[in-house]
């Protein structure tokens, strides 16, 4: 299959929307990462998503809609708390889990009785969804296990030849996925940290404690148990000052390993090393978030043996950054 690249003009978006109506897969930009969209009411179309990504079938997909009034079409009820969350954070980098009314294809929800709903805050992405007239099931548009795509080029790297088209909307603005929140209970539960911070949610309501990772056989966000965001070469997080970081670089280098580093601009200035990706200033973690997945895709195992990455404060957007980095490193961390 030839994967067509679409610009963001109206005619191209309409053409891409027509393909989705026929059951094809189209990657589209959102403010978080690129999504791989299919008709959420068609089992056949949704199955293609799992095939193209190599995604485990017990990991449910988020349903994307263009406008708030559409949410009620797919859920049993919108409890008052959920109503407030929707008012505050949608459209935006926020996904709400509600009880499903069964209108969405069961493959989308992986057999759960809940459905995840999101309204992307991206003009072209939303326009595309609106043009299809459908609810759009969309995971991140990457091969399962790899970092999510923040540029059309990343989508093409992973899925060229496997999908009908990509709408190129340039680089995404947030750079990390949406915050997934269970809105079925009395208090919201954050199942995946993301673009909307815990602090922002706490400003409008208390939050219930999040379930521990891999705590039970039936995790609330099933996707959380799989490997994610993996760079090409093995990665270790380095938690310490510049001196400690340099020591770690030197240790690997002296064993003959080719070391790559992912670091903030501030740390990068203090390090002496050959292969380094500067992911933005520590004082502006939003910028680090924007560049993070590009950083994880940057080094190929043909070029380097090991990637050493800086750690960040587990606060604000830093929480989502550390969540992704920890998974990318498969929990490997060196502490001073
Ligand atoms: O920003 C985003 O959320 C992007 C863009 C494309 O919208 N999408 C995205 O989708 O990150 P994906 O498939 O990579 O991640 C969806 C997450 C998974 O962890 C999945 O397990 C969880 O949402 N999820 C989906 N439906 C769920 C449900 N009914 N209950 C609990 N978790 C659910
Ligand atoms: Mg994903």
UniProtKB/TrEMBL annotation:
Record's protein name: Threonylcarbamoyl-AMP synthase
Domain YrdC-like, chain residue ranges per copy: 10-196
Enzyme Commission identifier(s): 2.7.7.87
UniProt keyword Nucleotidyltransferase, yes or no: yes
The family this protein is said to belong to: Belongs to the SUA5 family.
Predominant subcellular localization, coarse grouping: cytoplasm
Role played: Required for the formation of a threonylcarbamoyl group on adenosine at position 37 (t(6)A37) in tRNAs that read codons beginning with adenine.
NCBIfam families named among the record's database cross-references: L-threonylcarbamoyladenylate synthase
Keyword Cytoplasm part of the UniProt annotation: yes
Entry binding sites for L-threonine: 32, 64, 138, 178
Organism: Gracilibacillus ureilyticus
Catalytic reaction annotation: L-threonine + hydrogencarbonate + ATP = L-threonylcarbamoyladenylate + diphosphate + H2O
Residues binding ATP, per UniProt: 55, 59, 114, 118, 140, 148, 192, 229
GO BP, sorted A to Z: regulation of translational fidelity; tRNA processing
Keyword vocabulary terms for this entry: ATP-binding, Cytoplasm, Nucleotide-binding, Nucleotidyltransferase, Transferase, tRNA processing
